[in-house]
Amino acid sequence: MSASILKRLPLDMFWPTFDPFLFCAFHNDKYPKANADMGPAESLVGRALGQDFAGMDGWRMYHGKKVPGFPAHPHRGFETITIVNEGLVDHADSMGASGRYGEGDTQWMTAGEGVQHSEMFPLLNENDANPLELFQIWLNLPSKNKMVPPHFTMLWNEDTPVVKALDSNGNEVAIKVVAGSLNDIAPAPCPPNSWAADDKNHVAIWLIDLPENAEWTLPAAVSNLSRTLYFFEGDSVELDGVEGSVNEAFVLKSDAAVVIKNIGKVARFLMLQGRPIAEHVEKHGPFVMNTKAELQQAFNDYQRTQFGGWPWPRHDQVHDKSKGRFAKYADEQAK
Q1: Is the residue at 329 inside a domain?
Q2: Element spanning 257, H or E
Q3: Are the C-beta atoms of 26 and 232 separated by less than 8 Å?
Q4: What pLDDT score was predicted for residue 194?
């Protein structure tokens, strides 16, 4: 194994992550044609509705019963970063904010002291398939920021930089920069209390696309960062001459450059990088705190306050099917 590769791990739906990251899920669902209610125009018989993760016929309802997705649920103590490569997500939350995003957009939400939100996957095309591909990444908050006010930011696809580079054979490599600068190209701003908001933490979230036979060098960062490269689409690659297969994660030495050579069909990667927060973590379900007492307090507070309650008519809130991509922030106009 190359000195730049510290570990190799297999991938399934839920990917291995390392401090400051807590969790990464890859949703890749080939939804069929839609019905009039923005759900799948297929029988749901045989699915464990409310807990459908089996992947029958290549798609899942998750916790949804009519529309796939995740009805209202709470969070405290960390951030969710939802990158939608294909398809749409309908957002609603206990702050009264809402939105529809996808097709390359990212939503970055700081749960902080507590928020409820729903994440539903409206199917709008009644004449053809409705594929969905997204990552949801959980980024921890340091203890000093775990109880900040909740906040969400939209990083629209049009405002998210893509760095393009030609290799020695003229192949064009594209790197989408969600967080962390690359070649002096800065990303759109993340929420102000995020671990990623301080450049000293070297948080980077990049989507890397290599065409067939292309080669690109992942630049070295500083030492002692968590740095993981997830190979989620393609066939085979070489990392510093070591062959790897699709559906593998490579834990990398952060202060070493790594030559990535695609030796198969189009290859796609997600890279997560950041300085560890290095604080004790206590987590259970939707809450991530530093002590068991704080975790118990989170459950008590949610039972008592519902984190502001749920102002929407449905827990699986979806927006009007005629709406395009939009975001309406709490107490603000649609943007």
Answers
A1: no
A2: none
A3: yes
A4: 98
Amino acid making up residue 30: K
Round to whole Å and give the CA distance between 116 and 308: 8
User: Could you write out the DSSP letters of every residue in 37-77?
Assistant: TSSBSS--TTS-TTSB-S-GGG---BT-SSSSEEEEEEEBS
DSSP H helical ranges for the chain: 292-305
Tokens coding 65: 């019963």
CA atoms within 13 A on the CB side of 281: 21
153 and 291 housed in the same domain? yes
Picking from 235, 261, 279, the residue at the C-terminal end of a domain is: 279
One-letter amino acid identity for 220?
A
Question: Residue 332 domain-assigned?
Answer: no
User: What is the domain count for the chain?
Assistant: 2
Same domain, 63 and 147: yes
Model pLDDT, residue 330: 85
- Assign residue 209 the CATH number of its domain: 2.60.120.10
Q: What are the per-10-residue average pLDDT scores of the chain (335 residues)?
A: 91 95 98 98 97 97 98 98 98 97 98 98 98 98 98 96 95 98 96 98 98 97 98 97 97 98 95 98 97 98 97 97 94 57
In which domain, by residue range, is 102 found?
Answer: 21-159+281-312
What is the rounded CA–CA span in Å between residue 8 and residue 228? Answer: 10
The model's pTM is: 0.96
Looking at the structure, tell me whether residues 175 and 220 fall in a common domain. Answer: yes
- Domain assignment present for residue 11? The answer is no
Distance CA 327, CA 335 (A): 5
Domain termination site, one of 279, 296, 327: 279
Give the E-state strand segments of 141-266 in sequence order.
151-155, 162-166, 172-179, 204-210, 215-218, 226-233, 236-239, 242-245, 248-252, 258-262
Nearest to 14 by CA among 24, 6, 22, 5: 24
